[in-house]
TrEMBL record:
<comment type="function">
    <text>Catalyzes the hydrolysis of glucose from the disaccharide unit linked to hydroxylysine residues of collagen and collagen-like proteins.</text>
</comment>
<feature type="domain" description="Glycoside hydrolase family 65 C-terminal">
    <location>
        <begin position="599"/>
        <end position="645"/>
    </location>
</feature>
<dbReference type="Pfam" id="PF03632">
    <property type="entry name" value="Glyco_hydro_65m"/>
</dbReference>
<dbReference type="Pfam" id="PF03633">
    <property type="entry name" value="Glyco_hydro_65C"/>
</dbReference>
<feature type="domain" description="Glycoside hydrolase family 65 central catalytic">
    <location>
        <begin position="282"/>
        <end position="488"/>
    </location>
</feature>
<keyword id="KW-0326">Glycosidase</keyword>
<dbReference type="GO" id="GO:0047402">
    <property type="term" value="F:protein-glucosylgalactosylhydroxylysine glucosidase activity"/>
</dbReference>
<dbReference type="GO" id="GO:0005975">
    <property type="term" value="P:carbohydrate metabolic process"/>
</dbReference>
<comment type="similarity">
    <text>Belongs to the glycosyl hydrolase 65 family.</text>
</comment>
<protein>
    <recommendedName>
        <fullName>Protein-glucosylgalactosylhydroxylysine glucosidase</fullName>
        <ecNumber>3.2.1.107</ecNumber>
    </recommendedName>
</protein>
<dbReference type="InterPro" id="IPR008928">
    <property type="entry name" value="6-hairpin_glycosidase_sf"/>
</dbReference>
<dbReference type="InterPro" id="IPR012341">
    <property type="entry name" value="6hp_glycosidase-like_sf"/>
</dbReference>
<dbReference type="InterPro" id="IPR005194">
    <property type="entry name" value="Glyco_hydro_65_C"/>
</dbReference>
<dbReference type="InterPro" id="IPR005195">
    <property type="entry name" value="Glyco_hydro_65_M"/>
</dbReference>
<keyword id="KW-0378">Hydrolase</keyword>
<dbReference type="GO" id="GO:0005829">
    <property type="term" value="C:cytosol"/>
</dbReference>
Length: 690
């Protein structure tokens, strides 16, 4: 790959802070390069607030070294096109390259390969040392050795402490190729490759099956190629391309690499998905990256991008929430409410595992955030099976019941109140009528009502009544939304809060009010706050066609992107979560929803493009909508759309693009249509069938 490739990040030295090293991750396994631990999805140890990702010892954290006193030239690269990290030693007469990757389709397998290649006509042996910190023991697992298998060593054991008393303690089984202290290319050899495999699974059978599959691919010379093929297919299917500044394109490819690494491969219906934490699967040991817990970060910040590009993975995220519904019901009961209250921090059970009680007790908007992801999914897929047969309706109903039980009637205002909450702005707690929380509760109840009607189920009268009569604070004089009852203009705010009413909530308001909310909160939002905040201000200004203001907000994100591997930090001073997928999710939403103007509604996918000055073209190759895959290319002058694929089971809905002017363009598979850039929508075509 050429040096200018925006999808390949290269360096001649590693960052001093090891937290900023890149990660290699699949849906089930993840590690940071050169680290001596890895994590397996859903494997937590510790009770309640102490529950954290269990450290699994990693044989993959080895590093090559050239013997002798001289310092050879070294280079490092993260290739986001192949999902592979590499370390190369360039010595007089030879190169040694170490590649590391989490196999995308064999999700229980990680692999290292080391290749020594002779560059001259010499015939002396060439030796490379391998430095490894690997010790087959863990502070979180009761590990014991088992018999070797097909040349691999074997350990297995359970986590030490269950998340809830009497609850399950997951078991880990690991097989790995023994690590030699050095590798030698014989005098008669020109080149040789050594493959080192690590398989980790929840059962001995799965670990052995994955290791054997890896060995078979090694024997065929195609292990890395099979990973690259699976990863490249995912990247092609989620392709987003920009004509714009190099730094923006690099950030885009970095975000896509790290976020897509976290989701299941296309052909893995049997693999349970365990959610996405703010720092991803590679992070989350005790004391790090929120212990690997799942927050609203998944449902609000990451999910919309995944939904637009890869709805099957979006469904897997929703199924994680359905599996943890019983824990959420228990949370509600313990706080004296009905229905289900999703935890502020979730691990394997859906019980609250936040170490600090105030967040679990008060930051209740997460329950509505979860349901909004279900609503967005339903609007873009019309997948009724998830709701009828797979537990989705039970979750919708339980969330609606929770919100109803959480409200109290104000005789004075003749409105329903939600009291004693912490809004997304965590600088304030125990407030009444958080605008975001109450607007989210209204949206939850409206969706539950619509969903019940679609499923031909009776609608409880209180759902509609409370949705109509819940208070969402509004200042009639200043024409803006106070963050909560008693908010004083100018009061500092931690992060995006009220601005989320405009997007993603799409709470009804005029352009004047939308502008006033942005103007009110932009100057008082903490500049040291979390990375995803500025993306939502950028989306708001794009909506109002204030392109320079949007760009200035988006630019703030770059202070959270570290070099050379584009690893995000939560806060611009380097504190907080690292490999901060939440910030990446917000950044991608600027591109996928801000630049395009895409908005998911009940009846259509709206568009209204707006590009800052330095961006001339955006191409999204695989937008999923109602069973269709659409390629959409946008410039300032023209929008081009083509349906490239349609599902057969269930059959895709025929689509049309309708401009605000009233012009209609049928979207047929394989036929490209273009029209001048203008607002409009993509919707079901009422007049034709496929």
């Amino acid at each position: 790959m050429a040096d200018g490739d925006p999808g390949v990040f290269t360096a001649t030295a590693l960052p001093e802070d090891p937290r900023l090293l890149p990660t290699v991750t699949s849906a089930f396994l993840g590690t940071r390069v050169f680290r001596d631990i890895l994590h397996a999805a859903g494997v937590y140890s510790g009770a309640a607030g102490d529950t954290h990702r269990a450290d699994v010892p990693s044989p993959l954290g080895l590093r090559m070294a050239a013997p002798g006193a001289h310092s050879p030239a070294e280079s490092f690269a993260l290739n986001t096109w192949t999902g592979t990290f590499s370390h190369t030693i360039q010595s007089p007469g030879y190169t040694a390259t170490h590649q590391l990757y989490a196999h995308h389709s064999l999700v229980h397998l990680m692999a290292s390969s080391i290749t020594i290649r002779r560059l001259d006509g010499s015939t002396h042996p060439i030796t490379v040392q391998l430095r490894s910190l690997f010790v087959p023991q863990s502070q979180d697992l009761d590990l014991r050795p088992g018999p070797d298998f097909q040349g691999a060593h074997y350990i297995y054991g359970q986590t030490l402490v269950a998340e809830v008393e009497g609850g399950p303690r997951p078991t880990v089984h690991m097989l790995w190729t023994p690590i030699p202290q050095s590798l030698t290319l014989g005098g008669e050899e020109r080149e040789r490759c050594w493959e080192l495999l690590t398989a980790v699974a929840g059962s001995e059978e799965e670990a052995k099956r994955s290791y054997s599959a890896g060995l078979s691919l090694v024997a065929a010379g195609s292990l890395h190629r099979s990973h690259v093929r699976a990863w490249a297919a995912l990247r092609r299917g989620c392709s987003v391309e920009l004509d714009g500044p190099l730094a923006l394109r690099q950030a885009l490819h970095g975000c896509l690499y790290y976020l897509l690494s976290a989701i299941p491969p296309r052909d893995s219906p049997g693999v349970l998905f365990h959610g996405i934490s703010p720092g991803g699967l590679s992070n989350g040991t005790r004391g790090e990256d929120y212990w690997g817990h799942v927050f609203w970060d998944q449902d609000t910040w990451m999910f919309p991008n995944i939904l637009l590009l890869y709805p099957e993975a979006a469904r897997a995220i929703l199924q994680y929430r359905i599996r943890t519904l019983e824990g959420a019901r228990r949370n509600a009961r313990e706080q004296g409410y009905e229905g289900a209250k999703f935890p502020w921090e979730s691990a394997a059970t859906g019980r609250e595992v936040c170490p600090e009680e105030i967040y679990g007790a008060q930051e209740i908007h997460v329950t509505g955030d979860v349901l909004m992801a279900f609503e967005q999914y339903y609007c873009t897929t019309q997948d009724q099976k998830l709701f009828r047969e797979d537990g989705g309706w039970e979750l919708v109903e339980a969330v609606a019941q929770y919100w109803c039980s959480r409200m109290v009637w104000s005789e004075e205002e003749q409105l329903y109140h939600i009291r004693g909450v912490m809004p997304p702005d965590e600088y304030h707690s125990q407030v009444d009528n958080s605008a975001y929380t109450n607007a989210m509760a209204r949206r939850s109840l409206n969706f539950a009502t619509d969903m019940a009607r679609d499923l031909l189920l009776p609608v409880p009268e209180e759902w509609e009544d409370r949705a109509r009569k819940i208070k969402v604070p509004f200042d009639e004089e200043r024409k803006y939304h106070p963050e909560y009852d008693g908010y004083t203009p100018g009061e500092p705010v931690k992060q995006a809060d009220v601005v989320l009413l405009g997007f993603p909530l799409m709470h009804p308001m005029s352009a004047e009010v939308r502008r006033n909310d942005l103007e009110m909160y932009e100057p008082v939002t903490d500049p040291a706050g979390p990375a995803m905040t500025w993306s939502m201000f950028a989306v708001g200004w794009l909506e109002l066609k204030e392109l320079q203001r949007a760009w200035s907000q988006l630019e703030k994100c770059f202070s959270n992107i570290t070099e050379p591997f584009k690893v995000w930090v939560e806060n611009s001073d380097g504190s907080g979560a690292v490999n901060f997928l939440t910030g990446m999710g917000g950044f991608l939403q600027v591109i996928l929803f801000g630049f395009t103007g895409f908005r998911i509604t009940r009846s259509s996918l709206l568009f209204d493009p707006a590009f800052p000055d330095d961006i001339t073209k955006l191409k999204v190759s695989s937008i999923s909508y109602l069973g269709n895959k659409l390629e959409v290319t946008i410039t300032r002058e023209e929008i081009r759309m083509e349906v490239t694929e349609t599902s057969q089971d269930p059959p895709a809905s025929p689509l049309e693009a309708v401009l605000e002017s009233g012009q209609r363009f049928p979207l047929w598979e394989g036929q490209s249509v273009s029209f001048p850039t203008a607002p409009g929508c993509i919707q079901r075509s009422p007049s034709r069938t496929l």
